[in-house]
Design a protein that fits this description.
mainly alpha
């Protein structure tokens, strides 16, 4: 009986090795949860800065009025707010990924990780430059939807090198971004849902599906 099961165990081990060599599987579900929490905190800080309720649209107009007609403080605050959320999310993601990789005896910075980073940076860098151009031309209301859409494209673009679930997360982010484009005045709310709530739900699902 043991001899009969040995070929099956060998095939299973080979398949596992191939999976590890072609897909980046060191992503940690909790990194998504933390990213979502940081995004919600960033959105809460923005609402508090603007003295607005969640149901109130036209956040950019409110900022212009509160700053006496100047948008400089508005841009400075939102850039700093978004940057802090990004730094905190990346820092936690890197820490949890490195810890998981070491625990599983995997290399963190291998060819697959480089492919993931390269394919993710293409839409993210392009989207970032596009958002700066939107701000330059005064189309600030389109910035939150654009960040969601380009982020979703980045996830879809990298999904072939990691968990397939990343693709579905990307599609959801794109869909939320399109909805935010339709209701531009509620862009900040959609941003909080896409980067906050959806990330938390995704992180919990990933944890129970792959890490529990």
């Amino acid at each position: 009986m043991k001899k009969q099961s040995e070929p099956l165990e060998t095939l299973t081990e080979i398949r596992s090795m191939m999976e590890r060599s072609t897909r980046f599987i060191s992503l940690n579900g909790f990194s998504g949860v933390f990213a979502g929490i940081f995004a919600l905190l960033g959105a809460l800080a923005a609402y508090n800065y603007l003295h607005m309720s969640i149901a109130q649209p036209r956040y950019f107009d409110a900022a212009i009025i509160s700053e006496g007609g100047s948008s400089i403080s508005f841009y400075t605050f939102f850039f700093t707010d978004a940057l802090l959320v990004l730094i905190a999310s990346i820092s936690v993601a890197v820490y949890l990924t490195v810890r998981k990789s070491r625990k599983n005896g995997l290399k963190v910075w291998d060819k697959t990780a480089k492919r993931v980073l390269f394919n993710m940076l293409i839409p993210l860098v392009g989207g970032g430059l596009f958002c700066f151009l939107l701000v330059y031309h005064g189309y600030v209301g389109l910035v939150p939807p654009s960040t969601l859409i380009f982020y979703g494209l980045a996830l879809v673009n990298t999904s072939k090198y990691t968990y397939e679930d990343i693709r579905y997360l990307g599609i959801i982010e794109i869909f939320i971004g399109l909805l935010a484009t339709f209701w531009i005045g509620f862009g900040l709310l959609f941003w909080a849902i896409g980067f906050g709530v959806i990330h938390i739900i995704y992180g919990i699902i990933m944890y129970y599906k792959y890490e529990r």
